[in-house]
Write a structure and sequence with these properties.
Shape of chain B: globular
Structural class of chain A: alpha+beta
Distance between the termini of chain A: 12 Å
Distance between the termini of chain B: 15 Å
Strand order of the largest sheet of chain A: 1-2-3-5-4
Order of helices and strands of chain A: EHHEEHHHEE
Strand content of chain B: 15-25%
Number of helices of chain B: 5
Structural class of chain B: alpha/beta
Number of strands of chain A: 5
Helix content of chain B: 25-40%
Oligomer: heterodimer
Number of helices of chain A: 5
Radius of gyration of chain B: 12 Å
Shape of chain A: globular
Chain lengths: 143, 114
């Protein structure tokens, strides 16, 4: 594998910009493929980053997706300047969503995003402050 | 089975990236919830959906899907097709509803004539 030490990068995410949704995930996926990571790992990273991107686009004004790739793991941190989540326990329940109807018409907002992110990561942590924003940290182990 | 074999046997119109018809189809997935497709479709699947917005292209790209079939005579907007060309995603349209499209493709993949 062509990974020495750690490869890091970030993507800026713009709230409300559905046209570019998934772009950060597609670029990160290409980078992981170039590094020769196995397909199942790439598949899981793509799912969690895409869902994280969509959440920032639906709910926040802006955000960042940071990644760090080492020999052992891929760390992803997504932080946004959004409204924050009042009840994280509720937000983590599959099917629960506060997305508006027009977002649902696009096929998003089904209350699957956060559960998908948790399901596909080896470590999952979410912190949120109402009125300030939300940070999600995820780790996917390579071995 | 190649995507092309499915296009030849069913009333499908190819709307973008016809080079992708040479791709192998591993199976299919039918859903209009994009998170569901992200989570549960598999590489090489053909995706059957009513959705036409731009985001279907990114989902198909990130999941390495074989192509997208938009059912019930829904027309994908020009911006979706343009993005599909860029991302090398084959989009097909059909007047068949999702149930019939999925049923007939399922039978083709089982080696039956439809």
């Amino acid at each position: 594998m062509a990974i020495s030490q750690s490869i890091e990068g970030s993507f800026q995410l713009i709230g409300g910009n559905f046209d570019n949704a998934g772009e950060a995930s597609i670029k990160l996926k290409q980078e992981l493929a170039r590094l020769g990571l196995n397909e199942e790992i790439i598949r899981r990273v793509a799912i969690v980053t895409f869902e994280a991107e969509i959440n920032v686009i639906i709910y926040a004004a802006a955000g960042w997706l940071h990644y760090a790739i080492t020999l052992e793991q891929i760390k992803i941190k997504v932080e946004d300047m959004g409204p924050g989540i009042e009840n994280i326990e509720l937000a983590m329940q599959e099917g629960y969503s506060t997305a508006p109807d027009w977002v649902r018409e696009l096929g998003w907002g089904a209350g699957m995003g956060l559960p998908n992110m948790k399901k596909n990561s080896d470590e999952f942590k979410i912190d949120s402050v109402v009125g300030e924003g939300t940070t999600v940290e995820m780790v996917i182990n390579i071995k | 089975m190649k995507l092309n074999d499915i296009v030849n046997k069913l009333p499908l119109k190819v709307n973008s990236y016809s080079d992708g018809l040479q791709k192998d189809v591993s199976g299919g997935y039918s859903s209009d919830l994009l998170s569901d497709v992200l989570a549960n479709s598999r590489e090489g699947n053909v995706w059957i959906t009513l959705q036409t917005n731009l985001n279907i292209v990114a989902v198909a790209s990130v999941k390495n899907l074989a192509g997208i079939i938009i059912v019930s005579s829904k027309k994908p907007p020009e911006e979706t097709l343009k993005k599909a060309e860029e991302e090398k995603i084959t989009i097909m349209t059909t007047s068949m509803p999702a149930f019939e499209t999925a049923g007939r493709i399922y039978q083709l993949l089982q080696g039956k004539n439809v």
